[in-house]
Amino acid sequence: MDDMQDDQAKRSDRLQIMLTPEEIQALDDWRFEARMPSRSAAVRELLRRGLEAEGYFSRAEGAPSGSFGVLKPKD
Fold it and tell me: Domain of life, per the record (predicted)?
């Protein structure tokens, strides 16, 4: 299994959130400006950045949706 398939296979939990139309617009605006491949990737990247800002870890890359995760992968 390649890295992207392996990463997607690990995503077994779904998280649903309710957003206002304005929040969706802000997310979509940021997503397109940041050239994110999907809303899911954008939300994961923003969550990762928030956790990083709190000192949890650091990692940044511009790759396909499957490459954007919240937690740093284990080596």
Answer: Bacteria
Instruction: List pLDDT tens digits, range 11-69.
Output: 888 889 998 999 999 999 999 999 999 999 999 999 989 988 877 764 544 555 566 56
Tokens found for residue 68:
């954007």
Distances (CA, A) of 69 to 5, 20, 22, 25, 43: 13, 24, 25, 22, 10
Q: Give which of 34, 50, 54 is closest to 42, Cα–Cα.
A: 34
Domain ranges in the chain are 23-57
Could you tell me if 27 and 38 are in contact, meaning their C-beta atoms sit under 8 angstroms apart? Answer: no
d(C-alpha 42, C-alpha 37), whole Å: 8
